[in-house]
Backbone:
């Protein structure tokens, strides 16, 4: 049984109070715009089998303007899923294979001297696309990874003395393999925090793998993917996601979860005090709120419920909880810490 938590003082709601009619109208609008989600999932299912969790998280990132980091063993269709989703959307796509010899200019672009005009001209890099796949991002050193920071946070790129705005929608989708140590560079905490979601991809179910095997073993296994959604639809849906209703009790629930990672003792979680080195920043609460709204949109709802928050909590928080040496010695994972926090804090 969960225990009583610290009471909250009266907080001014961040959203205006809405009437039941307003929420009903929003639900109708969400259901109308939700049609493109079904079309996307249907189109991608021609190639991607048994990875509903991964596709849903990619859509959450797409709808909430949040970048996504996929971590999983080789061969789990991480790259294929991102490429397939990008193909199903009528937008520009670029794939960057991260390697140890990659340079920042290979990503953002550089200044090129033009002998005909005796002047320098800007040559833009592959970052100037709607969808950028950073494949095996942990294979490049920190200076190359940091080249993405400005683009991910400010949605602009500076080349020389000039800054260039990136087109919308803009989304960085990165992959990394957790088991390889040779020739890899761990992502700095400052960069992982820029990713809204860090998703752990697991093996498919046996019957799903049977279908995957058959698709790859026959001549006509894969069907050609065609664009079924326009970029303008994504931008319009993003505006609706921001309008999805979140009650003040849900907002306080999110804040309690994030605060518990910073001050576990306050929430009667003394056993976590020596396990957490640092907790989630304000970016954690912002992203958890946005991801919960996007997930509610995927379910065809115009309002957020506690289950939306719990569903997205692991992907938003797992890379924002720093573990102590004691926790690592005991093989404690961020997932276990999140389990304890969600089990303690009372949902509204």
Residues:
């Amino acid at each position: 049984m969960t225990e009583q938590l610290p009471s909250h003082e009266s907080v001014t709601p961040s959203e205006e109070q809405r009437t039941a009619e307003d929420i009903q109208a929003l639900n109708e609008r969400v259901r109308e715009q939700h049609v493109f989600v079904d079309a996307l999932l249907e189109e991608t299912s021609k190639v991607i089998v048994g990875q509903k969790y991964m596709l849903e998280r990619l859509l959450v990132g797409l709808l909430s303007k949040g970048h996504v980091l996929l971590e999983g063993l080789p061969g789990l269709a991480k790259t294929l899923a991102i490429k397939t989703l990008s193909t199903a959307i009528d937008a520009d796509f670029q794939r960057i294979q991260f390697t140890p010899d990659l340079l920042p200019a290979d990503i953002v672009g550089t200044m090129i001297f033009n002998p005909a005009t005796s002047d320098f001209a800007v040559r833009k890099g592959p970052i100037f696309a709607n969808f950028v796949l950073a494949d095996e991002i942990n294979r490049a050193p920190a200076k190359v990874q940091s080249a993405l920071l400005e683009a991910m946070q400010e949605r602009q790129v500076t080349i020389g003395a000039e800054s260039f705005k990136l087109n919308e929608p803009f989304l960085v989708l990165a992959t990394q393999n957790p088991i390889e140590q040779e020739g890899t560079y761990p992502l700095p905490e400052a960069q992982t925090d820029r990713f809204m979601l860090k998703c752990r991809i697991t093996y498919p179910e046996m019957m799903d793998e049977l279908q995957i095997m058959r698709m790859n073993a026959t001549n006509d296994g894969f069907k050609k993917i065609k664009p079924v959604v326009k970029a303008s639809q994504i931008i319009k849906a993003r505006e609706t996601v921001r309008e999805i209703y979140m009650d003040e009790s849900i907002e306080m629930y999110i804040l309690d979860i994030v605060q518990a990672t910073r001050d576990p003792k306050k929430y009667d979680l003394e056993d976590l005090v020596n396990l957490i080195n640092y907790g989630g920043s304000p970016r954690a609460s912002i992203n958890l709120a946005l991801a919960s709204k996007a997930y509610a949109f995927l379910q065809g709802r115009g309002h957020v419920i506690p289950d939306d928050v719990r569903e997205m909590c692991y992907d938003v928080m797992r890379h924002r909880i720093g573990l102590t040496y004691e926790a690592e010695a005991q093989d404690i994972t961020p997932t276990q810490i999140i389990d304890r926090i969600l089990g303690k804090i009372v949902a509204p």
